[in-house]
Write a structure and sequence with these properties.
By secondary structure, this protein is mainly α. 75% of the residues lie in helices and 0% in strands.
Length: 138
């Protein structure tokens, strides 16, 4: 939310100091990720570390992708169906670890969830696109 509120100012400042800020984010993430094993720490301490780790990772990812340009058709398609992906994702996640279907192998589970989620999302997107092109009934 902070990024969205001050996006232009943050991007201008980060572009001037991209390399040191990116290195700092990656180092912060790596440091917290590798030192996250204290059994004597409180729950609040673990929560604080988790939030900091996630912030460093997310900011580092955003900074790295600022320098990369993707020209991949598959990624463009996933970008178009991102809302559908978000809406559909829990159904296959729950379905393949339910009483009806239980997939033991983590790899097969991940592939099944990914393939079903993407397929259903693309189908929903295509139906929505077709419905939006038809003239209204009213």
């Amino acid at each position: 939310m902070v990024w969205a509120l001050h996006e232009n100012g943050i991007q201008r400042a980060v572009k001037k100091r991209w390399l040191p800020v990116t290195v700092l984010c990656i180092a912060g993430f790596a440091l917290i990720f590798t030192r996250y094993d204290s059994i004597y720490a409180t729950a609040a301490f673990h929560l604080t570390l988790a939030v900091l780790r996630n912030m460093f990772f997310t900011l580092g990812f955003v900074l790295i992708t600022m320098k990369l340009r993707f020209g991949n058709r598959a990624l463009e398609l996933l970008g178009k169906v991102s809302m559908e992906l978000y809406a559909v994702q829990l159904i296959p996640l729950d379905l393949f670890h339910s009483e009806a279907i239980w997939i033991e192998s983590d790899l097969i589970y991940a592939l099944a969830v990914l393939s079903v989620t993407v397929t259903v999302s693309v189908l929903i997107y295509l139906v929505k696109k077709k419905l939006n092109k038809q003239p209204s009934l009213g």
